[in-house]
Amino acid sequence: MSLALDPAAQDLLFREAHTAKTFTDEPVTEEQIQAIYDLVKFGPTAFNQTPLRVVLVRSAEARERLVKHMSEGNKAKTSSAPLVAIFAADNEFHEELPQLQPTAPGLKDAFFSERPVREQNAAMNATLQAAYFVVGIRAAGLAAGPMSGFDHAGVQKEFLDGDHTPLMIVNIGKPGEGAWGERSPRLTFDEVVTTV
Amino acid sequence: MSLALDPAAQDLLFREAHTAKTFTDEPVTEEQIQAIYDLVKFGPTAFNQTPLRVVLVRSAEARERLVKHMSEGNKAKTSSAPLVAIFAADNEFHEELPQLQPTAPGLKDAFFSERPVREQNAAMNATLQAAYFVVGIRAAGLAAGPMSGFDHAGVQKEFLDGDHTPLMIVNIGKPGEGAWGERSPRLTFDEVVTTV
Q1: B127: which chain A residues are within 8 Å (Cβ-Cβ)?
Q2: B98 to chain A, minimum CA–CA distance in Å?
Q3: pLDDT digit string (tens) for A126-174?
Q4: Domain A24-176 sits in which CATH superfamily?
C-alpha cells in the first residue's frame, strides 16, 4: 500500500466513483457548490491563472434553453439532473493576474499580452481546474456527469461572456437507479508509462 | 461542513498541498507511481479515451538532456527533483478505443477518424488526466511541481513518439526546505460562479 490517502477517500474520489447518467431528485445546494469551490480552488494552475469560470443552470427556463444545445444522447440526463454546470475558460484571465500573482506584476502585459497565448493557456488550465472540480463534486458525496457533446458555439453565444470558451457541461447530483453500467476497461500501467 | 471527504484528505489533496520548488533526496519508487496510476486511471474522460501517456525520466543521462529543454526558471528544480515525469497526449488514442469502449465499436472509425478531432480530444482529455495524476501524486504523500515552461518541440522530438504531444512536465518528490512560499490569492466564489 503506497498511498497516504486513506482507502475510503480513494474509493469516494476514484475507485467507487463513476460518471452518472441518472440522478435522484435531491437538490444540490448553493452551500455544497461553495464548499466544493472552496476546496478545489487550491488546485495548481500555471502562474496561478485559475481561468475556470462556472455557470450554474438553476432556473427551469435556462435549463430548457440549455437542453436544446445538447447532443441527442445527452438531452435526457441534462434535463433530469438536479443541477447542471457549464464550465468555461476565461480568455481574459490576465486581467486578474496582478491580484492572483502579486510577485510577478509584469506577467499580464508581457507573457500574456497576446490573445492566442491566452486562449491556449486558458483552455489548458481551465481544463485542469475542471478535473479538480469533478474530484471536488465527488468529495461532496455527489456524482458528476461531465459531457463534451453539445453545440459549443450555441452555448457560448447563449450563456457565456464573449471572452469565455465553453469546455464541458457537467450534471451534478446523487446517483439514481441504474446510474452507471459496468466499469469500462483501463489501460495497464505498462501501456501508459515508459521509463528513460 | 458540506463535504463527505474527511478533512485530513481535503488537507492532503488541496488545502495543505502546494506546488513544490525544492525536494528532499528521498527516491520516488516504481511502486509509488504504480499505486498512483492504479488510483487515478479511473478518472473520467470522454468516451473513456484516456489519452494520457507518461514518460518517467529516471536516468542521469536522460535528466541532463531534459534539463536543456527547460526554461531558465525551471532548470534547477528539474535537475534536483527525485523524479521527473513528462505528461503527453496520444493523438492516436483511437487505436485503443475498441478495447476501452467495447460498447461503441464504431467510435474509432466514425467520430475519431480525423486527426484534428483526435488532437483536440487528446489535448483536453489528457489534460483532465494530468490533473487527476497531480491529485494522485498528493494522495501518495508526495509533492508535485507541474511546469509548462519548456521547449515543447524539443521535448517532443527528443523524448516522445511522433504522435504524442507534450502537455506538461512534473517534478515529483518529498518537499524540501523552502519548497514553497506564501499561498497565492484565489478568486472568490462570486468572481468564478454565476447562476442563471
Answers
A1: 124, 127-128, 131
A2: 10
A3: 999 999 999 999 999 999 999 999 999 999 999 999 999 999 999 999 9
A4: NADH Oxidase (3.40.109.10)
At B49, which amino acid appears?
Answer: Q
Among partner residues B35, B44, B54, which is closest to A193 by beta-carbon distance? B54
Is the pLDDT confidence value at A105 over 90? no
* B83-90 and A143-147 strand pairing: unpaired
CA dihedral B67, B136, A125, A85 (to 10 degrees): 170
SS3 content of chain A, % helix, strand, coil (to 5): 45, 20, 40
Q: Which residue has the higher pLDDT, A2 or B15?
A: B15
For chain B positions 79-118, those within 8 Å of chain A (CB to CB) are 96, 99-103
Q: What is the ipTM score, two decimals?
A: 0.97
Surface-to-core class of residue A39, CB atoms within 10 Å of its CB (0-12 exposed, 13-18 middle, 19+ buried): buried
Q: Are A2 and B142 spatial neighbours (Cβ–Cβ below 8 Å)?
A: no
What are the C-alpha distances in Å from A109 to residues A45, A98, A106, A112?
19, 10, 6, 6
Alpha carbon dihedral B10, B11, B15, B16, in 10-degree steps, equals: -160
Choose among B10, B19, B58: nearest Cβ to A44.
Answer: B19
Cell numbers 443552470: residue: A57
Q: What sections of A41-172 are H helices per DSSP?
A: 60-67, 72-80, 97-100, 115-139, 152-159
Residue B63 has, within 13 A of its CA and on its CB side, a CA count of 16
The secondary structure of residue A96, as a DSSP letter, is G
Task: Report the percent of chain A where pLDDT is more than 70.
Answer: 99
pLDDT confidence of residue B39: 98
Give the residue ranges of chain B where pLDDT is below 50.
Answer: none
CA distances from B1 to A36, A39, A82, B18 (A): 10, 12, 20, 23
- Residues of chain A in contact with residue B2, where contact means CB-CB under 8 angstroms, are 29, 31-32, 34-36, 140
Reduce the DSSP state of residue B78 to 3 states and report it.
helix
What mean pLDDT, rounded, does chain A reach?
96
